Amino acid sequence: MTLDYTQQHLVKMANQIAGNVPSPDDVAGQIADHVTRFWTPAMRTDLGRIGRQEPGVLAAEVHAALAVLEADGTGH
Asked: Does the pTM exceed 0.90?
């Protein structure tokens, strides 16, 4: 999978969120909360697809957040 500009931007934003969570407690939950509140469903769907098809481009914390989103039904 070759990432287009929009997908590259999603990756960059997700990894930046992971690097800037305000508290070291429940990092995955904080990322998932941010993505749920501020990202559209289409953006979340794209991020999940990227995580499955190009796992190396996302921080481990983002993968953990994707698992949280999938578990609570807000991921796609």
From this structure: yes
